[in-house]
Amino acid sequence: MAKKVVYSLLACCLLYFLLQSVQPTVVHASSHDNNVEWNGLFSDQGPLYDSALEPTCSTPLTLSMRTFHQDITSANIKYYDTADSSFHWVAMSFSNTDATQRFDIWKGTIPASCSIKLPFSDQRWLSHCLV
């Protein structure tokens, strides 16, 4: 009987020390830290991110981009316009946070015209640092 008590006490002590040595995994949240969480960026040509799949001359084109919640402070769309053969920038603005509270949606609108406009890239600013 005494051996069972000693073994139980030793087992409890061992379990206690094992549990004390286990460190929880730290999950780093996105923030305004001059570090873009690239795996949180997403956009495509689907209806959630592109307002006009087949725009006409009178249709402005609103593009959206998903980021991790509070990961960036600003974003821009860079596009090429065949009317003047040059690149232009459109500022994106924060639109909303999704229902899961994990992602932010940013939107920017390319003005309507009959010239061909080719979205080239987006640009993200963190605090005062261009990424």
Automatic annotation (TrEMBL):
GO MF, any single term: hydrolase activity, hydrolyzing O-glycosyl compounds
Top-level taxon: Bacteria
BP GO terms, sorted: carbohydrate metabolic process
Keywords from the UniProt entry: Signal
Protein name in UniProt: Uncharacterized protein
InterPro entries: Glyco_hydro_13_lg-like_dom, Ig-like_fold, Ig_E-set
Keyword Signal attached: yes
Signal peptide: 1-29
